[in-house]
Amino acid sequence: MTNVMNEGDITRALRRIAHEIIERNRGSENLVLLGIPTRGAFLSARVADLISQIEGKPIRRGTLDITMYRDDLRMRAPKPLLATEIPAGGIENTDVILVDDVFFSGRTIRAALDALGELGRPNSVQLAVLIDRGHRELPIRADFVGKNIPTSREEIVKVHLAEIDGLDEVLIEGKA
Amino acid sequence: MSQISLVGGCNAIGEKINLTITDQKITDISYKVPVSGAHVIDVSGSILIPGLVDLHTHLREPGKEDAETVASGARAAVAGGFTAISAMPNTDPVADTAGVVEQVFSLGKAAGLCDVFPIGAVTQGQAGEQLAEILAMHESAAKVRMFSDDGHCVFDPLVMRRALEYVKMFDGVIAQHAQDPRLTIDAQMNEGEISAKLGLKGWPAVAEEAIIARDILLTDHVQSRLHVCHVTTAGGVELIRWAKARGINVTAEVTPHHLLLTDELAQSYDPVYKVNPPLRTARDVEALREGLADGTIDIVATDHAPHPTESKECEWSAASFGMLGLETALSIVVQTMISSKLMSWSDLVDRFSIAPAKIAGYPDHGNPLAIGNPANITVFNPNKSWTVNKDLTMSKSRNTPFHGMELPGVVTDVFYNGKHVLRDSKIVSVS
Amino acid sequence: MKRHLLSISDLTYDDAVLILDTAAELAKISDAPVKKLPTLRGRTVVNLFFEDSTRTRISFEAAAKRLSADVINFSAKGSSLSKGESLKDTALTLQAMGADAVIIRHNASGAPARLADQQWMTGSVINAGDGTHEHPTQALLDAFTIRKHLRPEKKDLTGVKVAIVGDVLHSRVARSNVLLLNKLGAEITLVAPPTLLPVGVENWPVKIAFGLDAVVAHSDVVMMLRIQRERMAELFFPSEREYSRQFGLNSDRLKKLKPNALVMHPGPMNRGLEISADSADSLQSVIVEQVTNGVSVRMAVLYLLLGGAPLAAAANIESNEKVGM
User: With bands split at pLDDT 50, 70 and 90, how would you rate the model's confidence at C80?
Assistant: First the structure.
């Protein structure tokens, strides 16, 4: 098991992402940050807080559960649904930033795009992830990446966050 | 002249006997070398008992020959160790005339495997209103002595009184299906905690007991003879015990399934457990076993009730009432009464052969294994066991609740009037 | 969870809470512009109704359609469906059509259990009301409604006092509710004349009252059951007036209710018999909301029974969980 990011690394990466989001979007006026539960939602909240601090005003934020949109539902036992919280005003004509922890096959994001499509028509959809580990199975890319970590398919990337796991760290577990 | 010697077996009290049958009679029972020239059959380890007698059998002929015929019912009876069965009258047409009872009787003779004695209906069409021609049925070739509207209760107390009085002419007996119809409208199973949970309409014990109590009092009043069919409740056993103590001429029967199964089985909603009267509680089962052991309940009767598959392969409330019984009866009674040491083998012979033959008046049956008596004999190996398989029944129907159960005791041979009708547990084809 | 939902006793406490939690999330989605989820796309759900019940059928149909399932309505009225073997033949037909789930309403208690146990078909069986046995999804939607109003931040219904009033004997709604509400910690009182209580009710986990006045003032929920007029002919009570006087929720009793108590009814109502019009239309009445919640609860049941893989296949995948996406 290898530690590839510690608390400081994660904080710095998120701060950079916050700045990049503001820069790319020329401010935060039209932004809606949507985290994908479970850990994407905590990361999204942190990034939203950072953007609010930088911009000096609140930013619209929420969560988007994609369970019902997954294309692998029939390959596993049904899972409990997680919270979807769409901020007042919805996502129509906004710039939506999807936030997730680990970017892998791209299927989660595909499901998230489907879910968004049901909620309205945003001006744009951008993707922020803490870890991009490669091995895409769909033509989807991230706009904001905390850290690129080359992995083999067999390895497991674990993101731990203080809110739920007690501490911040990113680990890679290899197959023996 | 044909002679068969059964050697190496025991009688019901454990005495070794070599029994020789010559033509239709028992001609020797001494424990000695068989009569020379006789065909010798080794029955070591087996018990020899008088052929079983059933006073409660539903054959479906005439009317529903797809479920059972007299011949197929007779085959099931012989496989189960019976040499006499009694056909209940709820056929189509109902056996309420001399013509129908003679038809059933002669179909039994034609099958030639065991005696089939018809039971006549008490009332015309079993409708409970007008008495059937009871005397004509008695004086027919079938010599009917027992009458019942089984499946229906003779509910009207006046009709019941008249029937009880009328059969005194020839020492007949009325066999009552004790079920108050008003208390059992649409009833599906025993009324109790299970029926409440399952949402099935209840058949309360009191509906049985109230009729038993009334009929006991009527029987006493008109000094006649009552036989209570398939008692199922602890309260019913109590009432009969009370009547017997008072010297009232009442006899009673219990079915093998009520000695073993309880209403808990209905929780599967599988109609194979749907039967009338219904399976009751464990407490009732215990009281029935005690009643049979102490003689309060005189006999075991099967209430063998064949039904075609489609009558059971459906919703519980749409299904027919009834279970097969002939082929499993002896093993069930051995398991519930002998293995549990509640009864001896002699008691079993009494409840299953001697007493029923006496109640219904079948002089050739239920006799001790003694020289000169008709050779109606069942050979039973109590040390073997078998597994019930509904697909291998002799009956035309498959509705046995005992499917898959391993039961003690195997009927190997049956002699009906000296004729070897079951050999090595297989029906001998009759010429 | 088990493959079928035939009785509340098929559910563990955790299953029941999971269904309510899932329904709560789905209710939120239904409030948003999203009316349709792709979850059950390509799956076939059959509404097999041997007994008329427009509201239950429509509720299941809406639930299945919001999850993008294909819905086939198979109704006994005016078709060849009848009693007896036809249940088997119908099941074989549905199997041949590839039904993934059968939602069955039947006038015979235990008919769904027969459908599930006889190996006639491989899909899930959901009991939408069988005879006088059970109606599990109705109980789930009732529990959902109660929790939403009285225990919004809690998992279960611990301590909620529920009076179930009326024809308990013939009510599948009451049977399912007793099992479920008890599982979830509610305190139940059955209010009915002794003629309309099942044999052995003294061993149920409930209190009994023979009149509504005794319980109305301290109940958190008053759940009125439909009383069928033909019960009078069957001698269960002497007259509508006498029944209504002792067991009906009328204006006077409505006033005695706690301010936050709920008035519930599974419908259809007999206004003026078991419930007065002003009670049914009062602010405390959640009767219309029960219908709305029914769709979310049935979506949750369909998702949890059909959304995933067959249990064995799921176990293999589960180990690779975090790797997948």
Answer: low
Q: Check pLDDT > 90 for residue B68.
A: yes
Look at residue C318 and tell me if it is in a domain: no
Spatial CB neighbours of C246, under 8 Å, sequence gap ≥ 6: C193, C210, C211, C212
C134 in B contact zone (CB under 8 Å): yes
Range of the domain at A88: 7-71+81-153
Contact by Cβ (8 Å): B397, B307: yes
Among residues B303, B347, B350, B413, which one is catalytic?
Answer: B303
Cβ separation A69–C37 shorter than 8 A: yes
> Apex CA A158: angle with CA A153 and CA A159, to 5°?
135
Stretch A141-158: mean pLDDT, rounded?
94
pLDDT tens digit string along A48-61?
999 999 999 999 99
Among A69, A77, A114, the residue with its CB nearest the CB of C308 is A77
Q: What is the number of CB-based contacts under 8 A between chain A and chain C?
A: 83
Write down the pLDDT at residue A71: 80
Domain coverage including residue C200: 136-287
pLDDT reported for residue B37: 78
Searching chain A, which residue's CA lies closest to the CA of residue C324? A105
pLDDT of residue A77: 75
Rounded to the nearest 10°, the torsion over CA C82, C86, C91, C96 is -110
Question: Mean pLDDT across the stretch B207-220?
Answer: 98
Residue C265 has φ and ψ, to the nearest 5°, of: -160, 130
Question: What tokens were used for A167?
Answer: 């501490």
Measured between alpha carbons, how far is C40 from C21 in angstroms, rounded to an integer? 19
Q: What sign has the CA pseudo-torsion B383, B387, B393, B399?
A: positive
Q: Would C233 be classed as within a structural domain?
A: yes
Residue A61 resides in a domain: yes
DSSP A30: T
Quick one: pLDDT band at residue C323, thresholds 50, 70, 90? Answer: very low
Question: How far apart (Å, rounded) are the C-alpha atoms in residues C149 and C131?
Answer: 30
- Owner of token pair 């369909």: C302
For residue A162, is it within any domain?
no
**In the numeric block, which tokens belong to residue C280?**
């049914």
Tokens 């279970």 belong to B323
Taking 70 as the threshold, does the pLDDT of residue C314 lie above it?
Answer: no
With an 8 Å Cβ cutoff, the interface of chain A facing chain C consists of 65, 68-70, 72-84, 86, 90, 102, 104-105, 107-108, 114, 118-120, 153, 156-158
Percent of chain C with pLDDT over 90: 72
Contact C272, C301 (CB under 8 A): no
